[in-house]
């Protein structure tokens, strides 16, 4: 897809990351021109090769830390973007407990810098990467955007809640910013081309990459963290959404902001499938779809895990004209295809 000279430019911070890179593809497919900013502290430059494979051309990428005010200002001066999608953040829950100041400094300062630079350069549209972790263990399910946020279970989760409040308060101060905070549920899968996917940087904390690495023989066995929860099969329930569905939701969010003829606005929107799946069902579906028998054992609960959380996606369907289209089976097939691809390297 060759860029037309007047494709609207979108700054994508963390654009070489798992969700960011898939969103870059969806942006180009929707006629936008992404401008990536990434310091590659939690991603690899090979992602740019994957993007070139899918898109048939290079995407502008600045290697910079989003906390580097001089670098970020220079990018705003050079690139006439019409919006920002802010993915760049540290996101390892466990590490955030060990190193809270690293998370508060990095995740909050980078957002504050963006909110200072955007009005200065006439950039009004912001889509922010938030997380269902702000809900904790909801009293009622499925969880809606009106469900009260609960105290975060980790400094990582707290940076997401605080970031939402920073954006809300900035908008309420009449800053000329229109913002949507998208609360992701559990992103899984990979681009169907297997040119992009979730990079295995260290031992996976998340379920699906651990499943695919176990199936690939990289891990000897998967531990299911607890089967004594109050759920149909005793294992936790989550809302697993294909990363390409999630990417497409960002394009719809940008379009929504573009259409708004107001100077300032802020809202939050759940981005999930609306379906809850247990851990054992993820395993069973993976085995059915791939023909691989997974070696797993039942272990103790993981501290901090909520029992079940899944989304009410009525608002996303209505406000963004968006619905997750890909099935769990497709997500797991795509995740496995990606794992097989990178295991061959
Ligand atoms: C899912 C389920 C585990 C690994 C986290 C973050 C959240 C978001 C998504 C960034 C749980 C179980 C897992 C394993 C297991 N990240 N599990 N064995 O914890 O729902 O959400 O990632 O925004 O903010 O908190 O995802 O994939 O880690 O766990 O049994 O080896 O799988 O107990 O029930 P989680 P997860």
What does this entry look like structurally?
Pfam families: GDP_Man_Dehyd (PF16363). This is UDP-glucose 4-epimerase. Its EC number is 5.1.3.2. It catalyses: UDP-alpha-D-glucose = UDP-alpha-D-galactose. It is a single chain. It is built from eleven helices and 13 strands. The chain is an alpha/beta fold. The strands form four sheets. A seven-stranded parallel sheet has the order 3-2-1-4-5-6-11, sandwiched between helices. Helix 1 (18-29) packs parallel to helix 2 (46-55), helix 1 (18-29) packs across helix 8 (243-259) and helix 5 packs parallel to helix 6. The model has no long low-confidence stretch (mean pLDDT 96). The protein binds UDP-4-deoxy-4-formamido-beta-L-arabinopyranose. UDP-4-deoxy-4-formamido-beta-L-arabinopyranose (WQD) binds at residues 91, 93, 131, 133, 184, 186, 205-207, 210, 222-225, 236, 238, 279, 302, 305.
